[in-house]
Amino acid sequence: MSASTSLPVRPTLSRRIARGWHWTSHHANIVIGGILVGAICLVAALAPWIAGADPYAINLTNLLQPPSWEHPFGTDDNGRDIFARVIYGAQYSLLEVALSVSIATVVGVPLGIIAGMSGRMVDEVIMWFMDVLFAFPGIVLAILIVSILGPGLFNLMIAIALFAIPVYARLARNLTLGLKQMEFIEAARALGVPQTRILVHYILRNSFGPIIVQSTLTAGTVILTAASLSFLGLGAQPPIPEWGAMMSQGRNYLGVNIWMSLFPGLAIMVTVLGFNILGDGLRDLLDPRK
């Protein structure tokens, strides 16, 4: 090794901290949203150890108790620990988000890409069907689907996924229409790259950023819609500790015990807020114009 060759200098700890603080200060939404969403995921994963009580255990001698050391969130009309039920409710809310968004993405994104890459006839047929779904307000369409399929947690997730499909289909179509005019797509076609490879390796891979942002923003809508349908008795059925169902059960006791509805409502608010803030931060981070 010659004397003039210099080894790369590793940044000092203070410089690393300064860089970390600079990144955090410029992406506060990602940090705050990530902390909130990460905390909810951690609570859901560690629910058996955090709850400290059986969310289904009934104690008729301990009904409608206010918050205490033994029951931090009080008890409901069946003597069940509200804190344990709220903690376990995080599992059901995240399950609703995961399955509903996954179904909507797996169905909507390919339809949008096919519509954008195909001819006018295929595009019009797919978009006409999406417009029909868009004609119904989301919550009304979900109520209609659940009414047909019957109340239940699984049917609830299918209903939410169906009204979210047009969102992903339109997004994927718009992205495809823009990407297929790019020079690297035209170069791939000129080189004889198969259409399937172009769809997967060029169109889909370059659409991941906006799709991830949309999925994060959709998560908040999924939680609110699921809670609304469960509140109406069309979603999760008792005794499942789902936040919307818990609020519906607690509305009959607002004058006696507000805690039954207050704490599940706060859990919904924090979770939706976390996903929305995280989505806003990811949108700013992945925006190519910045």
Q: In short, what is this structure?
A:
With 290 residues, this protein is an all-alpha fold. It has helices spanning 13-26, 28-45, 47-51, 82-117, 120-134, 138-149, 153-179, 183-190, 195-204, 208-231, 243-250, 259-286.
Q: How are the SSEs ordered, and which strands pair?
A:
Elements lengths: L12 H14 L1 H18 L1 H5 L30 H36 L2 H15 L3 H12 L3 H27 L3 H8 L4 H10 L3 H24 L11 H8 L8 H28 L4
Helix pairs in contact: 2-4, 2-12, 4-5, 4-7, 4-10, 4-12, 5-7, 6-7, 7-10, 8-9, 10-11, 10-12, 11-12
How far apart are the first and last residues' alpha carbons, in Å?
Answer: 42 Å
* Oligomeric description of these chains: single chain
Rg, Cα atoms, Å: 24 Å
Judged by helices, strands and strand pairing, the structural class is mainly alpha
**Number of helices, where a helix is a run of at least 4 consecutive DSSP H or I residues:** 12
Question: What would the average pLDDT be, to the nearest integer?
Answer: 84
C-alpha geometry: flat
Q: Write the element-wise H/E pattern from the N-terminal end onward.
A: HHHHHHHHHHHH
Largest β sheet strand count, sense and barrel closure = none
* Residue share in β-strands: under 5%
